Amino acid sequence: MKNKSIRYTINSIRSCYWKKCNFCNITFSDKYRERTPESIVKEIELIAENSYLKDEINILFVDNDIIGCRGNLIDAIPP
After folding, report:
1. Is the whole model's pTM more than 0.70, yes or no?
2. Is 56 in a helix, a strand, or coil?
3. Which residues neighbour 12 within 8 Å (Cβ) at sequence distance 6 or greater?
4. Of 15, 23, 36, 44, which one's alpha carbon is 20 to 30 angstroms from that of 67?
5. What integer pLDDT is reported at residue 18 of this predicted model?
């Protein structure tokens, strides 16, 4: 029997906190919003509990801004 797998995507943020990179189209997107870690864990738990394909569950984070508002690497990027 073939191993059954399913893939889910999760966003932990919306938009970009910095909005200052000239090369990025996210600069013009919606207001920056961050999910709490508890909210993300709850979503992962719901996926695990309710998935009808339990052989393999892949969860992919698809955030546009991996640094977020707590990072400091973005300060190196000029306006």
Report:
1. no
2. strand
3. 34, 35, 40, 61, 63
4. 44
5. 73
